[in-house]
Amino acid sequence: MLKLLSKVKGTLVGIVFLAGLGLTGCAESPSTLDPRGFGADQIAVLWWVIFGLATVVFVAVVGVLLYALFRSRSGEHEEKLAESTFDKRFVIGGAILTVIILVIAYLFTLQTMSVLASVDPSDEYVVEVIGHQWWWEVKYPNQQVITANEIHIPVGQPVQLQVMSADVIHSFWVPELHGKIDMIPGQVNTFWLEADEAGVYYGLCAEFCGTQHAKMLLVVVAEPADAFTTWLSDQAEPAQAVTDAPLVSGKEVFTQGGCANCHTIRGTEATGNLGPDLTHLASRRTLAAGILENNRGNLGGWIVNPQQLKPGNKMPPTSLSGTELQDLLAYLQSLQ
Ligand code: CUA
C-alpha cells in the first residue's frame, strides 16, 4: 500500500514537473489564451469551456479509479457486487453522461463558429496575404501597396484578409487576434483580423511547409486610424530619388548587381518579382520574415550570407567589396 502511494506521488510530481517545463517554453510566445481581439476572445472562451469539461471528466475518472484501487476487498463485498445491478447502471449512466458532455462541447463549438462567421468586415482595406517559402507577401490592392512580412491594420475594426499561396500549403496564424486559416495554392480563402488595442502582434506559419517553416514569422501592427492611413499612403509612394554619393552608388550596386533580378524597388529599374518588394524596406521592423531585427548589422549579414541564417531559402550569397556593401546598406536603409 505504501509502495503504491509513493508510486502515485512520484508520478504526480513527474507530471507537474513536465507541465512546468512545457509552460516555460511558452513564456515568450504569443498565446491564444491572451486574446487581444474579438476573434481570439471567442476562441479563448471556447477553449476554457472545453478545458473545464475535460477537467471535470479527468477528476471524475481519476476519482473512480482511486476508489476502485483502494476500496475494501472482502469476499462478502465481492459476492454482494456480483448480485447487484450497480455495474450495469454505472455503465449506462457513464455512456449517457459522455454523450451529454460531447453534445455540450459540440454546441459551444457551433455557437463560436457562427459568431465568428457573422462578422462582416468592410472591404475598404482588403489585405491580400500570399504565402511563399518562407515569407509573406502583403498587398493592399485598393491602395496599390505591396510590402512583406508586416501587416498594418486600423485598431478596433475588422479588416478583410484574402489569403493564398504561391507554392505549398501554409497557414496564417496570429494567436492573439484570431484562429488559423490555411493558405492553399490555387485557392483564395477569406478571413479577417481585428485588434482591440493598438500594439504589435506576432504571427507565424502554422502548417509545415519545408525546412524553414519555423522561420516564417510575421508582424501585425494595429494602430489608430490616422496613423494607419498615413502608413498606407507612405507605402503607396515609390522610393524617393537619391542624390547623395554613397546612396547613388548603393542604388547602382542594387540595380546593376544581382539584387534587381529578384526584388522590386518601385521608382527604380529594379523590377524582379521572386523575392519581397523592398520599396520601403527600412520602414519594416524585421528582416527575413520576422527572424531578425531590421538593423544595419543584421541586414549586412543577411545580404552577405542568407544561407547561413536560413538554409535553403531562395536568396543566394552575395559577394561584394567592403565599399559596395556599405553603400548598398546605406541605400537600403534610406528606403523609409
Ligand atoms: Cu509556411 Cu510553414
Written overview of the protein:
The protein is of the alpha+beta class. The protein is 45% helix and 19% strand. The strands form three sheets. It has a five-stranded mixed β-sheet with strand order 3-2-1-5-8. Strands 4-10-9-6-7 form a five-stranded mixed β-sheet, covered by helices on one side. The N and C termini lie far apart (72 Å). It has helices at residues 2-26, 38-70, 75-83, 86-117, 225-236, 245-256, 259-262, 296-304, 306-309, 322-333; strands at 122-132, 135-140, 145-148, 150-154, 159-165, 170-173, 180-183, 189-193, 199-205, 217-223, 286-287, 292-293. A hairpin with a 6-residue loop joins strand 6 and strand 7. It has ten helices and twelve strands.
The helix-strand sequence is: HHHHEEEEEEEEEEHHHEEHHH
Summed over residues and divided by their number, the pLDDT gives a mean of 89
The percentage of residues in β strands lies in: 15-25%
| Backbone CA Rg | 28 Å
Structural class: alpha+beta
**Shape designation:** elongated
Structural key phrases:
336 residues, alpha+beta, 5-stranded mixed sheet, 45% helix, 19% strand, binds dinuclear copper ion
Helix-strand layout with pairing:
Blueprint: H1 2-26, H2 38-70, H3 75-83, H4 86-117, E1 122-132, E2 135-140, E3 145-148, E4 150-154, E5 159-165, E6 170-173, E7 180-183, E8 189-193, E9 199-205, E10 217-223, H5 225-236, H6 245-256, H7 259-262, E11 286-287, E12 292-293, H8 296-304, H9 306-309, H10 322-333
Parallel strand pairs: 1-5, 4-10
Antiparallel strand pairs: 1-2, 2-3, 5-8, 6-7, 6-9, 9-10, 11-12
Helix pairs in contact: 2-4, 6-10, 8-10
This protein binds dinuclear copper ion.
